[in-house]
Amino acid sequence: MAELIDGKNVAEDVVRRVKALTAELLGKGALKPGLAVVIVGEDPASQVYVASKSRTAKECGFHSVQHTLPAETSEQELLDIIGELNADPAINGILVQLPLPSHIDAGKIIQTIAPQKDVDGFHFINVGKLGTGELETAFVPCTPAGSMLLIERVRGKDLSGLNAVVVGRSNIVGKPMANLLLAANCTVTIAHSRTKDLAALARTADILVAAVGRPEMVRGDWVKSGATVIDVGINRIAAPEKGEGKTRLVGDVAYAEAATMAGAITPVPGGVGPMTIAMLMANTLASAYLAAGLKRPS
Ligand code: NDP
Which residues contact 298 (CB under 8 A, 6 or more apart)? Predict the structure, then answer.
């Protein structure tokens, strides 16, 4: 059976380290790292994520502010708030919770965030830095950054010559994940909905990352023996076995099947999910170190 990659545990390690480095930063006379989370509207899932981000920020010893705006907030009002946060020296990281209501152009909002405060790593400057291998100064999107840390725990930092297949090509997960694996010297293939014979392609992967959004799509016989499998997917499905109307979370990988083939695998929940918030804290800390004129912690 595969080794279970415990994302909750690794995320706790990251948060502990961020907390310690925050204390060190304060000891040098710098301001607390400041994270501003902006949420527009009342999407219940977004409310849960945002509450969890703000709670973890406080746990890290950050200055944490939350802007909870009504769904009818205009694009200009949101742009004005971003402008104020960009100019505020107490704020190092700005996160606008997506999705935004349809009358607001999310792309425009993201590109308005100052690149040095773009702790989600979605601004073109940060996307470009990652794409050109400028990893020292880029803010990398949190989910792929966290997935990479989990891969490193199993395989080490140098992944030279390993075949990596990333299923999914979103700007938030698939593409940045592929760039990180490329920077670590993997031979990378990105698969998507038009890819032919995905199962055969997946079987070539020493590292297989699934970021699709389709419950348990990756089957056990798609997995090469000994492969590292990272399941980014979070899907809620009906669970009649738990009672009427009950649901449960599953990933994009059929875990029980894949675990019989893989060398190591992330569970859902408790794999990649907890890493995303931990990496948001790490990015905010890095931004605070840079703002204080210090070297960013590695
Ligand atoms: P998107 O919907 O933006 O992208 C999904 C990708 O999967 C697309 O590139 C799409 O291809 C591809 N795809 C869809 N169907 C198939 C198929 N049948 N075969 C092959 N490829 C397919 O999703 P995200 O990248 O935002 O998220 C992916 C998953 O990760 C979701 O379950 C999401 O909930 C989860 N997630 C988890 C996070 C975490 O913190 N753990 C954070 C972010 C996301 P095409 O481009 O051709 O349409």
Answer: none
